[in-house]
Amino acid sequence: MNLTLKIWRQKNAADKGKLVDYQISDVSPDMSFLEMLDVLNEQLINKGESPVAFDHDCREGICGMCSLYINGEAHGPDRGITTCQLHMRKFKDGDTIYIEPFRANAFPVIRDLVVDRSAFDRIQHAGGFISVNTSGNTIDANAIPINKHDADKAFEAATCIGCGACVATCKNSSAMLFVSAKVSQFALLPQGKVEATDRVLNMVKQMDEEGFGNCTNTGACEVECPKGISLENIARMNREYLKASLKG
Amino acid sequence: MSGILNSSIGRKFAMALSAFFLMIFLLQHFIINFSSVISSGTFNEISHFMGTNWLIQYIMQPILIFGVIFHFVMGFVLEIKNNRSRQIKYAKNNGASNSTWMSRNMIWSGGFILVFLVIHFIDFWIPEINVKYIQGDMSGLLADGEGYRYYEELTHKFAPMWRVALYCVGFVFLSLHLLHGFSSAFQSVGANNKYTKCLKGFGKAYAIILPLGFIIIALFHHFNAH
After folding, report:
1. Is residue B164's pLDDT more than 80?
2. Which three-class secondary structure state does DSSP give residue A109?
3. Considering CB atoms only, which of A171, A217, A235 is closest to B95?
């Protein structure tokens, strides 16, 4: 396949940045999208040009590092995958592909396609954990019975890999799907209920302070989420938040 | 409770509550208007009751006006804030691949409804306030004293085709707004469970049947008067 790539190039956070056109030929349909970018970078290095910076780590759809907004969609034109799981067979010979970084004020661009998603870390630090007493009287988690339905729902929420596709795809740059998954995975379990009030209040406060937008229930985040995190979690977080606000 | 309205979720909740109130109001407005198609006498009786009952006039009417203004102001404030949360936009964005047009354009459908409401107020509400509270005529009677004026005024208003067309366009935007707004309000207050599928179906029916009903009422009076 021969392709035209329109890639966002930006030297650093202060640089204005722009889309730059690249031609790439003989792309195998069996390549992953990131492998295609690896080939492009090899070509750029051989020509003495600066390679395109992009995030990646496990390349197995687990770590959530790879981002990229491809042809107007987070992680490209496929469902339930991260960018590293996207294959070039999804494109046609002669296509023009737009490759942009995840856009949100809360995710500033560091360089080219690499964005700073540490806002998610700060939200996690604000309450995305449980405090476990390790003084010697710790009860084994498995000794506490949990009904199957709640355990399944908590597990589903816990599959969120914090990639940020929900923010990138939301027209409001809202982080509510991510935050609600983190709130839900604990709120559904007895170990998480102890700190449930403080958790949801602190995490939502941090989310708002980071400058994410407000959810308007378009549902785009759920569609683009590589792990299929459901909007049910946002509804649960809304309930948890209202309950906590009335208590606190 | 402190600061709940300053939080993103608190604002969502407030928007949803005002939406519920407006959707209930819309339903009663539709039922009353529809009575005009069935019986002019019934419509006149209900209109006179609604127009002169102190609870409706002095308690419910101000609450309704507050609800309408709150919903619009909050909607615009949230839109501006949300827009600012992504200052650098995408060069290519394929919103249609993951969300409905209605959900992405609530500000536009809402904006057109606001324009329609201004026209609607000028057409019906301001003349009504003028007759009752400025001229002081609470009788609700026609100038010749032969029966109530409400049905007469309604049919008179819908005589010109341009006004009927304008109202029909307004109702189409109302339908587009409700097609997302109905289920969105439930999601905002945390109602997403095994009944959500049914609720979404009911919401779609509400969003289509009610505006369509208003269109039928306007067309009925237009053609009935000719």
Report:
1. yes
2. strand
3. A171
